[in-house]
Amino acid sequence: MLMFIGQRLLQSLFVMVAVAFLAFALFRFVGDPVSQMVGVETTLEDQARLREELGLNDPFVVQFWDFTRNLISGDFGYSYRTRQPVGQMLLSRIPATAELGTVALVISLLVGIPTGIYTALRPKGALSQSVLLLTLVGVSIPTFVIGILLIFLFGVYLGWLPTFGRGETVQLGWWQTNMLTLDGWRSLILPALTLGVYQLTLTMRLVRSEMMDVMRTDFIRFATARGIPYRSLFFRHAFGNTLVPVITIVGLQFGGVIAFSIVTESVFQWPGMGLLFLESIRFVDIPVMGVYLVMIGLIFVVINLLVDLLYFMIDPRIRVREAA
User: Fold this and answer.
1) SS3 breakdown of the chain: % helix, strand, coil, rounded to 5?
2) From CA 261, how far away is CA 98, in angstroms rounded?
3) Are the CB atoms for 33 and 80 separated by under 8 Å?
4) CA–CA distance from 264 to each of 96, 147, 198, 219, 270 (Å)?
5) Which structural domains are found in the chain, ordered by start?
6) 166-202 residues labelled b (16+ CB within 10 A) or e (exposed)
7) What's the rounded Cα separation, in Å, for the pair 184 and 96?
8) d(C-alpha 24, C-alpha 286), whole Å
9) Which DSSP helix (H) or strand (E) runs through 170?
10) Which pLDDT tens digit goes with each residue over 259-298?
11) Residues near 131 by Cβ (< 8 Å), separated by ≥ 6?
12) Rounded to whole angstroms, how far apart are CA atoms 2 and 85?
């Protein structure tokens, strides 16, 4: 067990170093941040002095070393645009993105898993075929188009739900939540549905595919021949074996929801990390962009590590292979 954890931690360390290098290297080509920070009346001498103060004239290796050392020490630097600490800016945006991603993931699981089981057990039914057609449409339509359609239908035409912002929020220490107010929940519905539709279709199709594969295995046929009740056969034996690959996808889905909520946050002006990242790209705010990408990479690495450990605990074959 300890050897397994040690190997995964070492792999995670190499992945994070690679992510930090790519994040820092890519942003050298997005533009000159000094030109976005100064006005037209700023002299060339002042621009050169500012570039020197920011360390932009240092060699690439020196800049990357300073960037990595500051990340390890917890010093994320200051935003070029607002002059505020980057860590404080991201910390204030984490609650909005985390709540949006969590609700979207819950929607996808609560709808996707039962629907996947139903379509697997009744693959030829009319309702199953209709559901598969709808999921195909859900996968094909881009996220921003789904968001715009929901805004037009429920926000503009029917006028039932707000179309932007988080609504009324409540402060719980440093965490600002909108899940304790009715107006906050009303503001959360449309972006959560927009973000959850794509994840829902993936979950449903994965559960359906895995369930149908398990139902064709020999041990299910043997259990059927023994006269085991269908309810126990489906939900105890078949569904239990279906969960192993589903756990991986669900774990990665949560990381994907957090990382790819940029489009949804932009459409609904949701004040999360994704919207902050887009604003940083517009103003070439390199410290914010770099730390954001490293944070997203860390989220994926941690989720993958937790999924591997969960695999190790629930699948005895992995424990036997590692022991051998």
Assistant:
1) 75, 0, 20
2) 10
3) yes
4) 12, 7, 12, 44, 8
5) 86-282 (1.10.3720.10)
6) bbebeeeeeebbbeeeeebbebbbbbbbbbbbbbbbb
7) 11
8) 8
9) strand 170-172
10) 778 888 888 988 888 888 888 888 778 888 888 888 888 8
11) 115, 118, 119, 204
12) 38
Q: Do 274 and 94 touch, CB atoms closer than 8 A? A: no
Which residue in this structure is represented by tokens 């459409």?
267
The answer to whether 309 touches 56, Cβ cutoff 8 Å, is: no
Closest CA to 70 of 294, 277, 278: 294
The tokens for 96 are: 């909005």
The counts of H helices and E strands in the chain are 15, 2
Helix (H, G, I), strand (E, B) or coil at 172: strand
pTM: 0.79
Q: State the Cα–Cα distance between residues 313 and 319, nearest whole angstrom.
A: 8
Residue whose C-alpha is closest to residue 189's, from 264, 247, 128: 264
The length of the chain, given as a count of residues: 324
Ranges of the chain whose pLDDT falls below 70: 1-2, 4, 28-32, 35-40, 220, 223, 230-244, 311-324
Amino acid in position 211: M
Task: Show the tokens assigned to 11.
Answer: 């792999």
From the CA atom positions of the chain, what is the Rg in Å? Answer: 24
Q: Are strands 175-177 and 170-172 parallel, antiparallel or unpaired?
A: antiparallel
Q: Which residue has the tokens 């990357």?
A: 64
CA-wise closest residue to 260 among 186, 311, 303, 198: 198
